[in-house]
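Dissemination and training. As part of the outreach component of the grant, students in the summer workshop were shown how a complex can be specified as a set of sequence lines and then modelled as a single object. The example used during the hands-on session is reproduced here so that future cohorts can follow it. Participants entered these lines:
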Amino acid sequence: MAAIFQGVGAAATLSSSPSNSFVPKKFLTSPRRSFCVRKVPSSVVVRSDGSVNFDLNSKSRRAQQLVANAVATKADSSAASSSSNPGHELLLFEALREGLEEEMERDPCVCVMGEDVGHYGGSYKVTKDLAKKFGDLRVLDTPIAENSFTGMGIGAAMTGLRPVVEGMNMGFLLLAFNQISNNCGMLHYTSGGQFTIPIVIRGPGGVGRQLGAEHSQRLESYFQSIPGIQMVACSTPYNAKGLMKAAIRSENPVILFEHVLLYNLKERIPDEDYICNLEEAEMVRPGEHVTILTYSRMRYHVMQAAKTLVNKGYDPEVIDIRSLKPFDLYTIGNSVKKTHRVVIVEECMRTGGIGASLTAAITENFNDYLDAPIMCLSSQDVPTPYAGTLEEWTVVQPAQIVTAVEQLCQ
Amino acid sequence: MPTLLSAWFNSHQPNLHPPSFYSLSLFRSSHPPPSPNPTLAMALSRFASSSRSGSLLKPLSSAISLRRPISTDTTPITLETSVPFTAHQCEAPSRTVQTSANELLTFFRDMALMRRMEIAADSLYKAKLIRGFCHLYDGQEAVAVGMEAALTKKDCIITAYRDHCTFMARGGTLLEVFAELMGRQAGCSRGKGGSMHFYKKDSNFYGGHGIVGAQVPLGCGLAFAQKYSKDEAVTFALYGDGAANQGQLFEALNISALWDLPAILVCENNHYGMGTAEWRAAKSPAYYKRGDYSPGLKVDGMDVLAVKQACTFAKEHALKNGPIILEMDTYRYHGHSMSDPGSTYRTRDEITGVRQERDPIERIRKLILSHDLATEKELKDIEKEVRKEVDDAIAQAKENPVPESSELFTNVYAKGLGVESFGADRKEVRATLP
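and obtained this result:
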């Protein structure tokens, strides 16, 4: 586990700022609105169960390897897949950057707005060097004014641009809640379909390493009832890049939740252009006894617990739900129908979190298939304390997951 | 506490219209004039040259010739705005404006239409055909009409919830307005938006927003998109004196000024933020100066020609130099919304005073009559025509059906990535790249 996380080191190892000779009004090739059209489809999609719709054999092999190796630690997976499909290895923040860069090249309407995304390179290096490549008009450094620059992103999206708005920390987007809720989510509906808002709002959230209460917020629980938005949470470099690209190409407003502690995960990802379906959950480890639903950082706690559970003789099915709004009830439903037991492991707080909604959704739809009540393991309903030991007890730990599964499977 | 009217008078030097224009009507007999009589012409012209104001000359000469039909004449007429502009950090535009008979009559018609529409909406609301919130714009028509005259459809306008007339000015139809207000299918937002959510994408009218002040960052975003795509167009983001105290305005202005966006922030100062007078809400009621580093202009918002002049000036300025603030000094006769009588925080005398002294439609009527561009009867005919149009539209809107129940779920999401979701019964998961 320690090998995977390098703490919040991402913030600590930032590159030095570029030299101070920037041209304020540097425009690249003028992005005419008429060019903001989509190109002919050219890529493939990997389904969560490993098979593909388009016949590229290497792709399906690659997908199979991903699924099979998901249980192991990251080091194993990268070694095993190097034989067949070359791909390239990178860290999660680099995968996000790659996705963003590819989309910015492909579509001149894509622009990035956020604090310190331009010259500084992004506080988590997700936008590093993009300003040098695309210019100040496409990678925009904003002042510290979340409410207004999120609003400006939404206004620009109304005209057809595709801005990617970065919140330096998801918690800061609470200041932009009005814009996200009323304007971003609802404009498509209240205008009778006249305007679409193809905006992506992304940023790191979640409990980090002793960052304090205000910088450890899980905003997915606050945003989940806004009608009209989609929410996705990435957890691996593969799905980070795929979800980033899908989110940018989507006509709906998408909020992409990243996690502060996952930025330095390393994985081998394909060289080809690919996206991940925004509404789809990922089957991490198929199993028979119990369905464990999770997302973002908790996926890794669950996988660690899964190792212990396997040693104890259980066969958990682990699904990374990825799509927080709307839930992929199809994949989840199939799993529930198979195992009849559900454990939800999430980082949101117990009250009003994603787990609470998911519990309700599963109970409503699959009550007949459940042998036992759903167990929802969430963070405690407290502000995240600074002290390390206390912070550890705020979030769900692998040992608790093991206990919960054992209890459920009696 | 100063009354509104006295405050206005104290701050401006009103330029009253040339007096005795009514006496001109004596020259316009109801009988067709006899063939031109040179002696009479000389006598009249002598009278004209001896009069104080040169503007009397034109109407007199036209009185001699055969009367023109209602004028679609586009020969320029030069007029002065009622009050000079007050500027902050920029050179005020000149008070002299060029207009034409055609334009003045169009202004009259458009404003009369808007006025009639708002009054009709008032009755519909009281008849419970319009529900919820209904914010009426009567009294402020000059801002919408003057602004539209200065812009093209490539320029964007975004405003708050008092949007019925701005929507009309941008090319909306009466049917769309009334159907939307009554929640019918033919409404501009398919009945799903309501009074506060009028939008017209093809004429770049971006609404229609209920949350005070939230439209200003959106407006700056529109300006950003215009600059990004090199449209050579500007965005007018309208807000009220109440919204002028929102922080997001200053945030958006800061970003717009930093990035040189062609954004024009227009404060429609009707002196009341719902029930709170501006002197109780704003420490500094000089809204045009609040931009600090951004230039500003204070305009008499009841004078459509002044509004047009200011907007033309602002558009030129914004395209070259970045954001500018316009403060339109205007007034609303109705209360904040239909549930507000509008008389608990201001006196009826004040309202009637403004109606008598500053009403935008009356001003244009007087201009038209004094320049002999149409008769009173013709103007009354226009008003009757407009009234009929409004009544017809209301009748048509009443016939219109309410939205289907399936409309509840349409337009929540745009279709994206070709994925179909059918809840738990989805049989197939597929995503094709666009």
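The first helix of chain A runs from residue 9 to 12. Students were then asked to discuss how this feature might be tested experimentally.
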